[in-house]
Amino acid sequence: MVVAPLTLTCLALATLFVAVLPIALYRRLRRPFGLNGRDTIAGIAVFALCAMVIERAVNGFVLHQAITAAWLSNPLTFVIYGALIAGVCQEVGRFIAMRLMWRRATAGNATAPHSVTGPSAAAGDAAANATAAKLARAARSRKTSVPSTGDSTALGYGIGHGGAEAWMVGVLVEIQWIVFAVVENRGQLDSYLDNVPVDSMMRIHLILASLSPQMAGIFVLERMASLVLQIGLSVLMWRGVRAGWRGILPLAIVAHALVEGPAALFQAKLVPLYAVDGLYALLALIVAGVLVRIFRSEAQVTQTQTPTRV
What's the predicted TM-score (pTM) here? Predict the structure, then answer.
């Protein structure tokens, strides 16, 4: 079995596009929205810890227990568990990170200079304005950003969280399959994976045989939709944390579980892939439209508040 060169080319281009997408998105939006790199790093760290370590550890424990494994053999139970565990692990991590980010932002604002009153108020205001202008120019020259309480914080975090998912769940996995396909075309896959059990080796051959240019397109669609939805979930959580609403964590868990539901239904072989991808594409378009409206107004506010040169 040989993987067609056209298929390999499409897979490589799709993987490259998904790899570059979150990086390009951050670089493109960093200046208009005043994104803070620490928010993006927080999103990367939360996904890596909560999704790739904690969630996988919990799944490994649950699926290796006789009682829970038998319980999860029911497709509907498997779907509910898979959607909820992803929501709980990722949203709890997102909630903790954003609580810390909110405290940092509000602490930074609390230390801002206050206005003065009395006979020297005019002179004090002039000195304060001059100092603020100098600090703003120094910050721009160092390319640093100040903690923000606006939705731009959620945007930076969401790009990090969704970008980490695109890389860890998408790019690295696709690179592995591209390598397998190249080795298979050389007729060396069996010797390359000589320690893999026979049944697993057969599944690898079947997956390689199913690769096509259409699969590359589906991969790009899934990763783009996932990135948009992660940004949307980040905005939802950030606004709830900013408002001090206690119900934001359970709401975010339910929302994330509903987003994960179609993928879990496909894994349980209850719905076809084209239906799942079509639903995700539609949902991502709706969320993207809402985000564009939110951040368009955010950009206008940011530009209005940007200090002018003196």
Answer: 0.83
